[in-house]
């Protein structure tokens, strides 16, 4: 969601604020702003649209000052406009915010009755007014902030500066993550480690309910009760300092690095010497059921995992979209392992589902890409996907890294539960080890895939079909196309086509069939015939055997390497990504930062 950066520096702070914001832009990019204390007074710049507009503005209206805050916004309350961009100012207070203040209507009425004027449509502005109000009552800045926090309901992270307090910033966390970075003679506040990576690797994660006063050479943290508290600093990984390299987009870099990334992930879960799965500290005999909760692409990873866990480990599996999970009040016993899959480890809906499970005493496991994330810190067991920072808003390498990690865990469960013998385990591990090679082969189809996208770019709607483990890949393909090219796309289980969606088929409707030659191929062929006989435009993603069976019916066929059924969903995810990427490029959309989206969704 929104990105926050704050710096208490010893040099003019605006260039660093802009650098931090550039690294945070993936969290939200509909407007941005910064404020610093200039000769003791708040000076502020804000701009609608991408960060480059703020950069241009700050070149035209340079600000000085060694203490400052910056923000990049993903709109919740109030449309994307300069007037709603942060920082918001009230009296001596300038404030940036990530999250949602749920009781803002009541507070807005209360503050209006006291005479406060509102210059924006945001929930953020009421926090600035609240703090300002407590300051005017004579409270010191930290106490004013703490008093304001006691009035707020919702999930939020805040950073603020106060006129008259030249040497400090104030920060607070209640929900979305916030970190404090320690440098030499200057300290920092950031929404995540990525923002602070150019400045420091010494990071302290604020806990829920924490407030911090950040000076140039000190950091004081207070817990929810207001008592001073120590939070242990950690050393952030050097890999957070990511660059796009020679690639035109982060998404392109992240797609092509998948063979290497998945090799690294596999090395964590597979013992290459023995050819077996490395056992982790999870007693799979204890469980009869796995309950997966996640969102978006991560949800589709869990849908693939369901086939693996049920078939190989004989565990029953529930898959929930995390935002709905709590509403059905599932009965969760001690024989259920609740697993939460998330690239960021911060997604508010997934985190809420995890906290629900913890509250009812269920064992929890987090499968995350960010090892220091809130989910990783709160779960009973953690499995890292090791994809490295993913900056493109559309998930690519994080998805396939989730898949290989889930595949390895399913084999671990199957082996521990005596459902597969050593020979079978080794055969499956060998297939996993070949994933990077197959991905490299698939990357060579890039030019061919780009050509077929010319037939897709003029479509208004598209259907993706798959069966078995290709069904979730069809769902993921449709999501990728939607979010990158803004073409409306839906994924369906191929057998479901005749129960309704077939009514949509005509010669303007492209249908992308995800059809490796697996045990479901013959039935897929029948479904494809149903489409073609109604004039549908068929794009077939298959292998040589599949092409021989049904290539004649297709308008375009991509012939994939011949891969074992077990790992097919991992390999077939890549053409889904490439199709969406090239179609988006042809249409001229912003592939790294598609409209309306944000990378880390920290509001419910
Ligand atoms: O960080 P998470 O994996 O929890 O994020 C979940 C979704 O928001 C994310 O996968 C989203 O659907 C992506 N934009 C998909 O490309």
Polypeptide structure, described:
The chain has 20 helices and 26 strands. With 604 residues, the protein is of the alpha/beta class. The strands form five sheets. An eight-stranded antiparallel beta sheet has the order 3-2-4-1-10-9-11-14. It has a six-stranded antiparallel beta sheet with strand order 5-6-7-8-12-13. A five-stranded parallel beta sheet has the order 18-17-19-20-21, with helices on both faces. α8 runs parallel beside α13 and α16 packs across α20. The longest helix has 20 residues. The termini are close together. Bound molecules: 5-amino-5-deoxy-1-O-phosphono-D-mannitol (M6R). The site of 5-amino-5-deoxy-1-O-phosphono-D-mannitol has 16 residues, from α9.
What does this entry show, briefly?
With about 600 residues, the protein is an alpha/beta fold.
Number of strands: 26
| Helix content, binned percent | 25-40%
What is the strand arrangement across the widest sheet?
A: 3-2-4-1-10-9-11-14
Q: Structural class, please?
A: alpha/beta
- Approximate strand percentage: 15-25%
The helix tally amounts to 20
Shape: globular
Gyration radius, to the nearest Å? 25 Å
Small-molecule binders:
5-amino-5-deoxy-1-O-phosphono-D-mannitol
Chart the SSEs and their pairings:
Blueprint: E1 3-8, H1 14-24, E2 31-38, E3 41-48, H2 51-60, E4 67-73, E5 88-90, E6 93-101, H3 104-113, H4 124-136, H5 141-151, E7 154-162, E8 168-174, E9 179-182, E10 187-190, H6 193-196, E11 202-205, E12 211-215, E13 219-222, E14 234-235, H7 250-256, H8 258-269, E15 270-271, E16 276-277, E17 289-294, H9 296-313, E18 316-321, H10 322-325, E19 336-342, H11 348-359, E20 363-368, H12 374-378, E21 381-384, H13 397-416, H14 422-433, H15 435-443, H16 446-456, E22 461-466, H17 470-485, E23 488-493, E24 510-515, H18 521-532, E25 537-543, H19 544-550, E26 556-560, H20 568-587
Parallel strand pairs: 17-18, 17-19, 19-20, 20-21, 22-23, 22-24, 24-25, 25-26
Antiparallel strand pairs: 1-4, 1-10, 2-3, 2-4, 5-6, 6-7, 7-8, 8-12, 9-10, 9-11, 11-14, 12-13, 15-16
The structure holds 5-amino-5-deoxy-1-O-phosphono-D-mannitol.
